[in-house]
């Protein structure tokens, strides 16, 4: 299962993606391919000179962090918007394939999971093998 966690507190946002979908054998897994396309696109955006964010992709895990910096609010908003757009794509994937993707959103003061009690896994539509 792919586990996605998006945590935000207004001053920073963190996205972590771990695991493998297990929808099909390696190389034929459309759920994993869809997730990878979203993550690689966001990683490219983080690499486009947006020095307010950090992206790490290693061993099937991805982590993205963007922080508000005084005087750079416009760039922060743009990069955070890109992150939220990616999260929306992952949310749609979780709704279509709930047995293979779980997305949790956390809001509030803390950026660490234990600081926030508003976590909720998304439930979604019935999955379909036909895409």
- Nearest-angstrom radius of gyration? 15 Å
Give the DSSP E fraction (strand runs of 2 or more residues). 25-35%
Architecture, according to CATH? 2-Layer Sandwich
Query: Could you tell me the mean pLDDT?
Result: 82
Order of helices and strands: EEHEEHEE
**CATH fold field value:** Alpha-Beta Plaits
Low-confidence segments, ≥5 residues, pLDDT <50? Answer: 113-131
Highest-level CATH class: Alpha Beta
The separation of the N and C termini measures 19 Å
The profile of the biggest β sheet is:
6 strands, mixed
| Silhouette | elongated
What is the number of helical segments per DSSP (H or I, 4+ residues)? 2
Total domain units: 1
Find the count of extended strands (DSSP E, 2+ residues). 6
- Order of strands, widest sheet: 3-4-2-1-5-6
Helix content: 25-40%
Q: What labels describe this entry?
A:
131 residues, 27% strand, 6 strands, Alpha-Beta Plaits, alpha+beta, 2 helices, single chain
């Amino acid at each position: 299962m792919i586990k996605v966690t998006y945590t935000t507190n207004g001053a920073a946002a963190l996205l972590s993606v771990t695991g493998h979908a297990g929808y099909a054998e390696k190389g034929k897994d459309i759920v994993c391919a869809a997730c990878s396309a979203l993550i690689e696109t966001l990683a490219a955006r983080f690499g486009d000179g947006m020095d307010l964010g950090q992206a790490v992709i290693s061993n099937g895990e991805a982590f993205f962090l963007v922080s508000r910096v005084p005087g750079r609010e416009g760039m922060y908003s743009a990069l955070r918007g890109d992150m939220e757009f990616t999260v929306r794509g992952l949310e749609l994937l979780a709704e279509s394939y709930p047995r293979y993707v779980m997305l949790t959103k956390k809001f509030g003061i803390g950026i660490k999971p234990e600081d926030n009690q508003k976590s909720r896994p998304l439930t979604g539509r019935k999955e379909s093998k036909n895409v």
